[in-house]
Amino acid sequence: MPREMNWKTWSAVIACVVPLTAAAIAQVPSQAQDNQAATTSDPATREQRRADQQRRREEVQIDAQILDNYVGHYQLSEFSIFTVTRTGDNLFAQLTGQQSFQVYPESTKKFFYKAVSAQLSFITDPQGRASALVLHQNGLERPAQRISQSLAQDVEARLAKKIKDGTPTAGSEAALRRQIEAFQQKQPRYGEMTDELADVTRPQIPRIDRRFAELGSLQSISFRGVGQQGWDVYEANFENGISICRIFLAADGKVSGLLFQWGP
Fold first, then answer.
1. What is the total count of domains within the chain?
2. What predicted TM-score, i.e. pTM, was given to this entire model?
3. What secondary structure letter does DSSP report for 147?
4. What is the per-residue pLDDT across 122-156, written as a single tens digit (0 to 9) for each?
């Protein structure tokens, strides 16, 4: 993993966002169509969603017994699972690689984080049991289907093996190099990104252009390891500095998560 560094600046420039940290939004192959329908929209609609997601929320009182219907595991991406638990009258949600955070009810089916502008809503069957949840953040609405505990454990085991093996995903270095070179040429390769990542990237292009202009030409890229959420971690050396780069590829080979940390 990347050695500790004394960053002059730190910037999560490009990433599909999940609560509190930037993490991969890799498509689950069996759910790709549903995800696309839920997240792809015109810019005006995304901004309306973003504004609604960032507005102040008010906690309401609900029957605590309802919370039992939401406890379980929900797969957001290949290696990312929401684990929803109940402690007393409170509901908590933990995403793979992150700590658990309490979510607060604004209705019987929708809950919000206090530490970040994000919400979770539950889709229920006729008996009231949740069959899926939806993450609302950054103008996106991303579904995660409920899965069994055994399947969740299998996903965790595969992630642990990937981290232990420390082997990069085939094609991730080449994809990262193409993305960096495209940004430097001010011609982003949106076609090689998932729709979600492209949506998040477009409004950040001015900042991205400035940072890469400051870094100068790319000198080398070296693999550093696999992160806690399955990202491949690289160190990119530039003429005027370095960047720790995290990248995640979807099953179809498109870039579904991309994060740059700028160094001195």
1. 2
2. 0.77
3. E
4. 999 999 999 999 999 988 899 999 999 999 999 99
